[in-house]
Amino acid sequence: MRKREKAQLPYHMYNGSDTEAPILFIYHGWGGSTAGYDDLALELQEEGYTVVLPDIIHHDSRNPIANHFDGKSRQQLFWSTVFQTIDEFESLIADLHMAKKHILVIGSSMGGFIASGIFARYEEIQGLVNVNGSGAFTLLEELFRQEDGRGALTEEEIERLKDYDPVERKYSGAPVLLMHGDKDTIINVEGQYAYAAHCNSSKVIFEIYKDVNHQFTADMVEGLKSWLNAQF
């Protein structure tokens, strides 16, 4: 593993041997860390892929908060973190001197929201893998609020979500892999169903993992690697 690069937007990078393969940007979940994806990055590097693990605002080196799982912290900062990370993508790839057409985005949990938002915004991106996340932002916030017993979204909040919501943008036609545990108690799987329906394409593979909660399991990792190698 290379040390954190001292760029405007810090990241970890693992250089692969296959220069024709897409460069994989992997985004972790809320309260997670790039360190938690070191093993996955190394496995993918062994397959020949170059992997980038960006540091996300309020995590790792970027002003981390004390307790990500305090309800108020999550409610106040989750979406702003997703939106800022999507907005930062252009600056990050500029630092890396990489073109969008060479990149595939992957995310787990909150990272799945981020990856989906980036993929929806830039049609040049080669593909998307969303693990236990969602590509239907407004729907998920409505479900979050129901679960938390909070009030309905305001019109201003709805418009803000729609600005980033992948289901509000045209699907590019690039390959997509959606993976979700059928027992997920954190992120409702309905968001994945909604995004798959929005794309409505044979290029979108949606795999449900039986008896899996909010986890990125070894079976999911194998599914990810098999899908990547079949596509590229």
Overview of the molecule:
It is a single chain. By secondary structure, this protein is an alpha/beta fold. The protein has a single domain, classed as Rossmann fold (3-Layer(aba) Sandwich). The chain contains seven helices and seven strands; from the N terminus they run E-E-H-E-H-E-H-E-H-H-E-H-E-H. It has a seven-stranded mixed beta sheet, sandwiched between helices. Helix 1 links the parallel strand 2 (23-27) and strand 3. 40% of the residues are buried.
Continuous helix count: 7
CATH class division: Alpha Beta
Strand content: 15-25%
Number of strands: 7
Tell me which oligomeric state these chains represent.
single chain
| Share of helical residues | 40-55%
CATH superfamily: Alpha/Beta hydrolase fold, catalytic domain
Write the layout of secondary structure elements.
Blueprint: E1 11-14, E2 23-27, H1 38-46, E3 51-54, H2 71-96, E4 103-108, H3 110-121, E5 127-131, H4 137-148, H5 155-164, E6 176-181, H6 190-199, E7 204-209, H7 218-231
Parallel strand pairs: 2-3, 2-4, 4-5, 5-6, 6-7
Antiparallel strand pairs: 1-3
Helix pairs in contact: 2-3
Q: TL;DR?
A:
This protein is of the alpha/beta class and 232 residues long. The protein has a single domain (11-231), classed as Alpha/Beta hydrolase fold, catalytic domain (Rossmann fold), CATH 3.40.50.1820. 40% of the residues lie in helices and 16% in strands.
